[in-house]
User: Which sequence fits this backbone?
């Protein structure tokens, strides 16, 4: 099993997705797009694609010229019935790849927030891990409209389109289910000033939330990751 990992931000932790891929014995090709890493021309050498988050928006082709090619890869993997996973910015790129409208500059959604499975999500092999509702980490302004043919899998009161699936195994998740408590602790340390400015009071409740909501998110996030990895079909 060979998986292409597209990194869009220097502080990316592979998180629960990396853990699940390691458990499955996957070979990872990590391309740090934000640092000038070169993406492959096509999907032929890989069984799956994971696109992680970043601070740029999904339409920032002028400042991040690799975005059109990454968007094309996201579509090509899906059309070849290969598993795709987009997280946060990655979900917005997957939406763009399949004709969904990107919505730039919504009010910030941050921290461990409640996420509800839709009726379709309850029946989904991956998002059923939400078990109705749970708290998972969010850090975004931008979002998207569902692409044509997408199955709406998760939502909350702030952002209606939290997750969708296209076809068998193309998944887009606005929330950071991959962000276990260790990753969130690192983000807190690296961006404490920004968090304090944009989310007054959150740092004061961080420890309590990490021990309760964060523990729940760790468990559910790994379940989601394992369920998605199980959909990867390695080449014969």
Assistant:
């Amino acid at each position: 099993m060979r998986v292409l990992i597209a990194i869009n931000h220097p502080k990316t932790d592979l998180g629960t997705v990396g853990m699940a891929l390691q458990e499955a014995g996957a070979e990872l090709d990590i391309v740090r797009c934000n640092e000038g890493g070169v993406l492959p021309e096509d999907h032929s050498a890989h069984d799956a694609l994971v696109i992680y988050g970043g601070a740029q928006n999904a339409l920032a082709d002028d400042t991040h010229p690799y975005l059109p090619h990454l968007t094309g890869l996201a579509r090509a993997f899906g059309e070849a019935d290969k598993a795709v996973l987009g997280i946060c910015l990655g979900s917005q790129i997957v939406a763009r790849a399949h004709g969904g409208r990107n919505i730039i500059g919504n009010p910030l959604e941050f921290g461990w927030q409640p996420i509800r499975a839709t009726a379709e999500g309850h029946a989904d092999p991956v998002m059923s891990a939400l078990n109705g509702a749970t708290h998972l980490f969010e850090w975004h302004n931008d979002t998207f409209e569902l692409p044509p043919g997408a199955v709406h899998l998760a939502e909350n009161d702030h952002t209606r389109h939290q997750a969708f699936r296209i076809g068998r195994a193309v998944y887009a998740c606005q929330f950071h289910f991959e962000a276990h408590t260790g990753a969130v602790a690192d983000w807190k340390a690296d961006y404490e000033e920004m968090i304090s400015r944009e989310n007054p009071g959150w740092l004061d409740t961080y420890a309590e939330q990490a021990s309760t909501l964060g523990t729940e998110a760790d468990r559910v996030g790994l379940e989601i990751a394992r369920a998605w990895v199980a959909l990867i079909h390695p080449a014969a």
User: Anything to note?
Assistant: The chain has a mean pLDDT of 97.
